[in-house]
């Protein structure tokens, strides 16, 4: 049984970071990609991104890509565990959206 | 051309606002030493400035890794003072915020609050000791007025830090309330 804190919702920042990292990307790429996907709504703060990346590395949801030694920018990629978390989160989000549409959707 | 402005700020958010107003007028901060700002002429609104209070001194390996990460993301390290760091980013690159979520904003405010608290206790304790010494000396006849004066000044300084800490606590409380209902 997973602990209750392990079943909670992902933050918006984490959701978009994980989503971005289905392709290898560095920090700046994640910021740009998030902005683009959210139609400019969400602009990740560099400090927020830094904190989230370190936590995700620690949890092994993402990993550092071993590049050339003198690679100036670190690139990251989602792990299998991270993908599992994403799938779980999407099921949860779909439940919310379905219920919302069922009740609020018909009220217009 | 360089312009030196001497100014003291207690509140870093007001300071940040001022730096951005200066930048809007074409004066970009390029260096900072205690209460001494150096500005350089730039086109109006060239940069957005942000001030951050780091967990460690800027020379600490963790801070260095963090600053390097920010630099990779188009953020420029301008200056630092103790654990306070001045960052800027070109405004053409869009909005610039260090923290975009409530949780990391709260953590940042808590760090600053803890910093003010240390000063507050220190000033209050040292101030009160001086006042006690000053008062005691009056009763023994050899009045140490200087202790009394220094004590009162130090206590007043302590109260300034108390005010800063209370302000920070209010901000933290507001964000925590917000965080209870949304991200």
Set down the secondary structure blueprint.
The complex is a heterodimer of chains A (108) and B (183).
Chain A lengths: L11 H9 L4 E2 H11 L8 H13 L3 E3 L10 E4 L1 H24 L5
Antiparallel strand pairs in A: 1-3, 2-3
Chain B lengths: L1 E5 L5 H13 L2 E7 L2 E6 L5 E7 L7 H12 L3 E6 L2 E7 L11 H38 L5 H37 L2
Antiparallel strand pairs in B: 1-3, 2-3, 4-6, 5-6
Helix pairs in contact in B: 3-4
What value does the Rg of chain B take, in angstroms?
Answer: 20 Å
Number of helices of chain B: 4
Beta fraction of chain B:
15-25%
Query: Helical percent range of chain B?
Result: 40-55%
The quaternary structure here is heterodimer
Beta strand count of chain B = 6
Largest interface by residue count?
Answer: A-B, 22 and 19 residues
Question: Tell me, what's the shape of chain A?
Answer: globular
Overall pLDDT score of chain A: 89
Q: Report the radius of gyration of chain A as a whole number of Å.
A: 16 Å
């Amino acid at each position: 049984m997973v602990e209750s804190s392990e079943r909670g919702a992902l933050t918006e920042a984490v959701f978009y970071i994980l989503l971005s990292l289905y392709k290898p990307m560095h920090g700046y790429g994640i910021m740009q990609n998030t902005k683009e996907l959210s139609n400019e709504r969400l602009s990740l703060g560099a400090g927020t991104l830094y904190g989230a990346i370190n936590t995700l590395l620690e949890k092994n949801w993402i990993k550092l890509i071993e590049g050339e030694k003198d690679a100036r920018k670190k690139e990251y990629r989602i792990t299998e565990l991270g993908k599992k978390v994403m799938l779980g989160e999407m099921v949860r989000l779909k439940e919310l959206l379905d219920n919302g549409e069922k009740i609020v959707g018909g009220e217009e | 051309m360089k312009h030196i402005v001497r100014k003291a700020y207690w509140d870093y958010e007001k300071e940040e606002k001022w730096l951005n107003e200066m930048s809007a007028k074409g004066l970009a901060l390029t260096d900072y030493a205690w209460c001494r700002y150096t500005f350089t002429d730039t086109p109006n609104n060239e940069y957005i400035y942000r001030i951050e209070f780091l967990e460690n001194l800027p020379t600490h390996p963790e801070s260095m890794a963090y600053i390097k990460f920010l630099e990779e993301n188009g953020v420029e390290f301008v200056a630092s003072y103790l654990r306070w760091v001045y960052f800027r980013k070109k405004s053409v690159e869009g909005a610039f915020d260090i923290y975009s979520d409530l949780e990391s904003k709260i953590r940042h405010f808590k760090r600053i609050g803890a910093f003010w608290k240390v000063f507050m206790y220190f000033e209050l304790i040292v101030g009160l000791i001086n006042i006690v010494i000053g008062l005691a000396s009056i009763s023994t006849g050899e009045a140490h007025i200087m202790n009394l004066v220094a004590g009162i000044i130090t206590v007043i300084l302590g109260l300034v830090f108390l005010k800063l800490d209370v302000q920070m606590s209010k901000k933290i409380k507001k964000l925590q309330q917000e965080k209870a209902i949304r991200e």
